[in-house]
């Protein structure tokens, strides 16, 4: 109960702090009362509760309500499909689902043996980057609070701040830099529920005058569709009143960074790892490159991996996860003898404590800041009865956007929209390939292995021809 | 050009041609089924706002922007186009 008691105590110190959605405003005091009301529906035996609410002030009261009754909240992407939720329910032994702001828990009906949690675990979040289906990371209350306190100190977050957050609150970027730090420090929150088009961002910034903007690279890329000369003075004033524009440390084109710098100011990098929490902060990446300085209490070294000798980053923080609930033993295998988490990231730390990432030792797709493996898309494709094989890869569109491409070898004629509908039921929308090509034979070498370059060329050709031709 | 053709061009540009202008004649297959990602969708929304001067509320109006024809109906309902 450390997490709940600490958050409640902090919020009671700042009862008037405002938390807004696009349409309504509430306060910490109101949210604490709302949490008590929601908790009445949670007076059941200690349960594992999957929360897939979208961003909304009610997310705060739901989380507090779940924590207040000693339940284990598992925070997840609202984009999860029913099939992905079923996998998590079975893998983690989840008892209840909360999917909307009524916080009405829906029993999953799960019965049977389930993996034990660590005695210190108070909250779980998911990762999808290093395992086939999302890994459920257990965190102690102390780890969650350490991540938030470290970030709040590094960014100077306080009651005079208001964070406008377009990143999902379940995600490390928003959870570790915005949700918990705001509740601890009394900083205000603006939590729009919709997607971040340029129009939505600019209208919300104008209406709420935030001091901090938290969003994934895709949102900043959208701002390039608006020029300063076309914006009203209120909007420009609000944009230039933002003291910190925060993004995950995903690649951001120089042109986007320069455009946002002109409209508002530089985009700062947050680099965190799901399993360890915040690692670095780069307030102004222009000219310095890299991911910025290590946060206080963070140790990073680069050491060869025993399996293949590739030098990967070993990261130790005060906000480390404990284990994967649904993959017993896997987290423990990734912990070095000195307690550091062995990542799949390749990079170096300079003598003055700056981290420079150089890539990943694991093939990971990164689309608009969401990281996942090609295998997490290929696997459900292979489960389709008419699919023989599939090749999933990253593509860059002619306008420079990142997207997912998949070439699929099938036994029969298969219409692309139908295959896409099948995938939309199986995986989250952001994993569904934008370019999907069905063929009766993937390009293969003499050994039978799919030829990657030829298959990528096959996929890239989809940008130049009518969609009708995708279907053979 | 007609409104339908204008919108079809916006869609084709937003998707880098993966949903070509010619695809708009199919009224039943949604953008999502044609592979439009959320990133391409946002590009389309911004282009529509700029061209037609509408403010699109993505919390409540997502379901109205699923095909070229549904966008045309949405724009008519908001008095952004005549035809």
Q: Globular, elongated, flat, extended or rod-shaped: what is the shape of chain B?
A: globular
Q: What is the helix tally of chain A?
A: 14
- Arithmetic mean pLDDT of chain B: 91
Contiguous low-pLDDT stretches of chain B (5 residues minimum) are none
| N- and C-termini, Cα separation of chain B | 11 Å
Radius of gyration of chain A: 23 Å
Protein chain pair with the most extensive contact, residues per chain: A-B, 43 and 32 residues
For the largest beta-sheet of chain B, the strand count, sense and barrel status come to: none
Number of strands of chain B: 0
Query: Helical amount among residues of chain A, as a percent range?
Result: 25-40%
Strand content of chain A: 25-35%
Structural class of chain A: alpha/beta
**What is the helical fraction of chain B, as a range of percent?**
40-55%
How far is the first residue's CA from the last residue's CA of chain A? Answer: 58 Å
Indicate the overall shape of chain A.
globular
């Amino acid at each position: 109960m450390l997490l709940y008691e600490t958050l409640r105590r902090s919020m009671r110190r700042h009862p008037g702090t405002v938390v807004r959605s696009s349409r309504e405003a509430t306060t910490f005091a109101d949210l604490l009362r709302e949490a008590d009301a929601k908790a009445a529906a949670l007076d059941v035996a200690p349960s594992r509760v999957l929360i897939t609410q979208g961003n909304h002030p009610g997310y705060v009261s739901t989380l507090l309500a779940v924590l207040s009754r000693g339940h284990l909240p598992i925070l997840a992407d609202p984009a999860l499909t029913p099939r992905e939720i079923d996998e998590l329910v079975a893998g983690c032994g989840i008892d209840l689902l909360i999917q909307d702001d009524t916080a009405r828990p829906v029993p999953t009906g799960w019965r049977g043996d389930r993996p034990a949690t660590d005695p210190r675990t108070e909250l779980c979040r998911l990762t999808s980057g290093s395992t086939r289906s999302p890994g459920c990371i257990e965190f102690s209350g102390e780890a969650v609070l350490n991540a938030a306190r470290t970030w709040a100190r590094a960014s100077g977050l306080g009651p005079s701040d208001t964070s406008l957050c377009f990143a999902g609150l379940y995600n490390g970027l928003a959870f570790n830099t915005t949700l918990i730090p705001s509740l601890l420090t009394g900083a205000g929150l603006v939590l729009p529920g919709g997607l971040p088009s340029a129009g939505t961002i600019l209208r919300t910034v104008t209406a709420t005058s935030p001091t901090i903007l938290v969003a994934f690279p895709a949102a900043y890329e959208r701002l390039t569709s608006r020029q300063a000369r076309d914006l009203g003075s209120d909007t420009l004033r609000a944009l230039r009143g933002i003291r910190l524009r925060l993004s995950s440390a995903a690649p951001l084109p120089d042109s986007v960074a320069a455009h946002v710098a002109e409209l508002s100011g530089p985009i700062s990098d947050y680099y965190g790892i799901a399993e360890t929490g915040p690692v670095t902060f780069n307030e102004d990446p222009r000219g310095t490159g890299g991911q910025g300085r290590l946060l206080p209490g963070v140790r990073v070294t680069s050491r060869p991996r025993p399996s293949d000798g590739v030098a990967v980053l070993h990261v130790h923080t005060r906000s480390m996860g404990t284990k994967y609930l649904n993959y017993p033993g896997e987290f423990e295998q990734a912990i070095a003898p000195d307690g550091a988490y062995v990542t799949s990231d390749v990079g170096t730390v300079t003598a003055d404590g700056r981290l420079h990432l150089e890539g990943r030792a694991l093939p990971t797709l990164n689309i608009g800041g969401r990281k996942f493996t090609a295998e997490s898309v290929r696997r459900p494709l292979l489960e389709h009865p008419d699919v023989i094989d599939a090749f999933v890869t990253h593509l860059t569109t002619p306008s420079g956007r990142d997207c997912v491409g998949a070439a699929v070898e099938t036994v029969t004629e298969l219409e692309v929209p139908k295959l896409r509908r099948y995938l939309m039921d199986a995986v989250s929308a952001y994993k569904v390939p934008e370019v999907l090509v069905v063929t009766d034979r993937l390009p293969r070498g003499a050994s039978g292995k799919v030829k990657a370059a030829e298959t990528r060329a096959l996929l890239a050709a989809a940008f130049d021809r009518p969609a009708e031709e995708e279907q053979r | 050009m007609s409104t339908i053709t204008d919108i079809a061009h916006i869609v084709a540009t937003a998707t880098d041609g993966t949903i070509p202008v010619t695809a708009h004649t199919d009224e039943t297959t949604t953008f999502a089924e044609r592979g439009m990602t959320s990133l391409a969708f946002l590009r389309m929304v911004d282009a529509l706002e700029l061209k037609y001067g509408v403010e699109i509320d993505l919390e409540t109006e997502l379901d109205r922007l699923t095909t070229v024809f549904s966008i045309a109906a949405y724009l008519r309902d908001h008095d952004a186009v005549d035809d």
